[in-house]
Amino acid sequence: MTNALKKRKIAVLGSRSVGKSSLVKQFIENHFMDSYYPTIESTFAKSVSYNGVEYDCHIIDTAGQDEYSPINAQYAIGIHGYVLVYSITSKNSFDMIQTVYDKIIDFCGLTDIPCVIVGSKCDLSSSRQVDMQEGLKLANRNNCAFVETSAKNDINVAKVFELCLQEIEKRTAPNQGDQAPSKGCQIM
Ligand SMILES: Nc1nc2c(ncn2[C@@H]2O[C@H](COP(=O)(O)OP(=O)(O)OP(=O)(O)O)[C@@H](O)[C@H]2O)c(=O)[nH]1
After folding, report:
1. DSSP code of 164?
2. Ligand 1 pocket residue status of 150, Cβ below 6 Å
């Protein structure tokens, strides 16, 4: 397998201020900031070892979505996997996950996408609005992986991206090889 085939593009989506950038920054740079700067869009690269294989991961940190945000082709075409983030302190951000998921599915013309649903800010459990069971149920319903994280306390941050690679590899290996499906958005 050539290096080019091990490149994996992962898009991180979700409502505004749920902690997408903080999650990505903690993963890439190992630090956390309390201040908030809205993201327009940034891409980060990191080599990740999963199951004995080195993957060249390109992580796209996107601007916060609301129910009216269209799914940009950039977040659909050529993307291998998705990280959909809500905050456990915001029921609204949780409700947005199904909306964003359905928009991606619609845009890609697929019935299933490699995806991890993330309940962020789990250090703020005293302000919790979404039970872990609700998150798990949503993930199971959509055939996604699920994890709760804290970028602040570095809880389960690396796990998010391992789970995403797992979801991607589950759908590409072994009999399908590393080829893009004839229909849909996974362009290698
Ligand atoms: N307590 C706590 N606060 C967090 C955590 N993650 C992010 N925050 C805070 O939440 C706020 C928003 O975080 P960002 O990472 O900028 O959120 P975002 O989803 O990238 O925001 P947009 O760019 O607007 O989409 C910041 O003040 C962060 O410090 C966390 O795990 N725990």
Report:
1. H
2. yes
Partner residues linked to 117 by β-bridges: 84, 146
The residues, any chain, with a CB within 8 Å of residue 126's CB and separated by 6 or more, are none
Q: Bridge partners of 118?
A: 85, 147
| ipTM at complex level | 0.99
CA–CA distances in Å: residue 164 to residues 34, 37, 48, 91:
26, 26, 11, 23
Distances (CA, A) of 173 to 55, 106, 151, 183: 14, 24, 31, 17
Give the pLDDT confidence score for residue 1 in this predicted structure. Answer: 47
Of the candidates 36, 8, 4, which has an alpha carbon nearest to the alpha carbon of residue 163? 8
The pLDDT assigned to 180 comes to: 41
Whether the CB of 63 sits within 6 Å of ligand 1: yes
The secondary structure of residue 17, as a DSSP letter, is T
Q: State how far Cα 80 lies from the chain centre.
A: 10
Span 6-171 CATH architecture: 3-Layer(aba) Sandwich (3.40)
Q: Check if 81 has its Cβ closer than 6 Å to any atom of ligand 1.
A: no
From residue 117, give the alpha-carbon distance in Å to each of 22, 28, 86: 16, 19, 8
